Each structure stands twice: as C-alpha cells, then as structure tokens.
Predict the structure.
Amino acid sequence: MLVTDWGPPSTATLARVRDARAAQFWDRKHAVSRSLGGPEHRPKGSLADRIQFQMRRYIWDFVAIYPPGSAIPSFTGAPIVSVVSEVHEETARLARD
C-alpha cells in the first residue's frame, strides 16, 4: 500500500502470481483489513509469523495460507516478496498432507 496506489493493480502485476488457487484483489476501502481488526489483530499461523515491517493502520502486502477446511492460517507473512520461498514450502507441505 503506497501513496501512489491510486487504483487497482495492473494485469502485469496480477500476472506475477500464476497459481489459479491464489486470490488477489483491490480492496480500495480496506474492508479486509478492518474485518481482521487491523494489524494488531492480524491472523497468526502455526509457522513463524514473518512480518518484516510495521503496518500501522491497515494490513497490506500480506499473505495468509489457510489449509483446506481451516479457519486458522498455517502461515502468515509480509511483505510477500520476502516470504515467497516460505509460501512455496508451505503450499508444497499442504499438498503432500
């Protein structure tokens, strides 16, 4: 979430994530962040909570992986670019289980 984020991400930006199971969206009114209770209440996974920067008012650039049928994530982290390898590891682990 940058000052320059005036509109939704471009097709090229969204194309960076190629997995059809992934959901990406533009949340202009920050409804997801509000529904999660803001950064202080962000979901925590059973794996290391890899949040590498301070999210003050809103949750942003954040990944949460939920195992099938679970309301609790098995992994959370941010910024996404810093946790890509862990995301791959966790999705591979879930695929094996």
Remarks:
- The radius of gyration is 14 Å.
- Helices lie at 11-14, 31-35, 84-96.
- Residues 9 and 26 are 7 Å apart (CA to CA).
